[in-house]
């Protein structure tokens, strides 16, 4: 039983970590898998001894602070159920000990002929005192358990945050094997306008694999075009709002350059993460142009600069002139040419 409980918890933890990293989507397969295993964990038959030996309750407490609200709510429900089991079994054990003590004392009191009523009253008072003491001990034990669990929860929460940061950094640096699992299909947000933008972006990014050379194909295939499409659309929506609003021309600029058949360079850079989703919204049109187009623009600028300089008024490059008589070069301000007069 203990082994099965620990295995279920490990499945929950792995799925929860993956769901926490995938922060750009409203829902994800990782979140659904985590919720399914949490439901199995909730139905799993546990008792005080198993919970104490495995310490799963303390470790599960960290999920009550998970970024996903559904995971957070279900994990809190499971933890509360387990706490109730611990308190209930503790009270049951204490009460059974009190009853045994009472029966022993009643038997010893019945053996005495005189003072039967007094002994029964004394025994009843003792039982009441024992029950009160037991209640106080249970309350102290419960508060102590909660204190330990809260301490473990704070430590585990910091550990989860660090894991999320590390996984996000690895994902942004395109390290093989560190990225979250690829999406099998596009994630929709139930907004027809936004979903259309995601479909167009995903359709364009899926073409990159067939456009690159063999040396880049493995790196491209390791990327997730559906996830990148969702992240780019989310970044544009968070900064500009809906694409049919006042910022529709900014949407069109990015969409045109990503879908442009002659701009494979920008499409590839977006998929490989050369431009992060939030950075894309700050790019100027010339920054999104292909490498060939950027070179052409640079030549046009150089030519325009050259023509503008050539069209300026002619300026003398020297203060000397050649004398028509003696053929000598003389300064304009000198009187050396007086001898030729």
UniProtKB/TrEMBL annotation:
Keyword Cytoplasm: no
All copies of domain TFIIS N-terminal, residue ranges: 10-89
PROSITE patterns: TFIIS_CENTRAL (PS51321), TFIIS_N (PS51319)
Annotated ranges, domain TFIIS central: 193-316
Pfam families: Med26, TFIIS_M
Annotated stretches, region: Disordered: 96-123
Record keywords, A-Z: Metal-binding, Nucleus, Zinc, Zinc-finger
Subcellular location per the Swiss-Prot or TrEMBL entry: Nucleus
Domain of life where this protein originates: Eukaryota
CDD domains named in the record: TFIIS_I
Main localisation: nucleus
SUPFAM superfamilies named among the record's database cross-references: Conserved domain common to transcription factors TFIIS, elongin A, CRSP70, Elongation factor TFIIS domain 2
InterPro entries linked to this entry: TF_IIS-typ, TFIIS/CRSP70_N_sub, TFIIS/LEDGF_dom_sf, TFIIS_cen_dom, TFIIS_cen_dom_sf, TFIIS_N
Name of this protein: Transcription elongation factor TFIIS-like
């Amino acid at each position: 039983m203990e082994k099965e409980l620990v295995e279920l918890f490990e499945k929950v933890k792995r799925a929860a970590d993956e769901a926490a990293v995938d922060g750009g989507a409203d829902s994800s397969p990782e979140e659904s898998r985590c919720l399914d295993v949490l439901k199995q964990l909730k139905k799993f038959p546990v008792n005080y001894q198993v919970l104490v030996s495995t310490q799963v309750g303390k470790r599960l407490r960290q999920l009550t602070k998970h970024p996903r609200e559904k995971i957070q709510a279900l994990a809190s429900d499971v933890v509360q159920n387990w706490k109730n089991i611990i308190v209930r079994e503790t009270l049951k054990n204490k009460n059974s000990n009190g009853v045994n003590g009472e029966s022993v004392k009643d038997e010893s009191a019945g053996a005495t002929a005189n003072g039967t009523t007094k002994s029964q009253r004394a025994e009843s008072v003792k039982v009441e005192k024992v029950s009160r003491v037991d209640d106080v001990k249970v309350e102290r034990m419960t508060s102590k358990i909660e204190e330990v669990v809260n301490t473990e929860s704070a430590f585990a929460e910091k550990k989860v945050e660090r894991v999320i940061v590390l996984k996000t950094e690895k994902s942004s640096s395109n390290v093989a094997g560190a990225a979250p699992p690829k999406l099998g299909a596009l994630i929709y947000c139930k907004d027809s306008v936004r979903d259309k933008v995601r479909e167009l972006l995903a359709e364009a990014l899926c073409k990159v694999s067939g456009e690159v050379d063999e040396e880049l194909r493995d790196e491209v295939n390791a990327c997730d075009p559906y996830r990148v499409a969702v992240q780019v659309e989310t970044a544009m929506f968070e900064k500009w709002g809906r694409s049919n609003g006042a910022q529709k021309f900014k949407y069109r600029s990015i969409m045109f350059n990503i879908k442009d058949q002659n701009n494979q360079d920008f499409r590839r850079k977006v998929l490989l993460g050369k431009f992060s989703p939030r950075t894309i919204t700050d790019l100027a049109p010339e920054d999104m142009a292909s490498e060939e187009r950027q070179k052409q623009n640079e030549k046009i600028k150089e030519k325009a600069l050259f023509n503008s300089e050539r069209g300026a008024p002619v300026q003398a490059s020297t203060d000397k002139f050649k004398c028509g008589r003696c053929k000598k070069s003389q300064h304009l301000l000198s009187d050396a040419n007086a001898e030729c007069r």
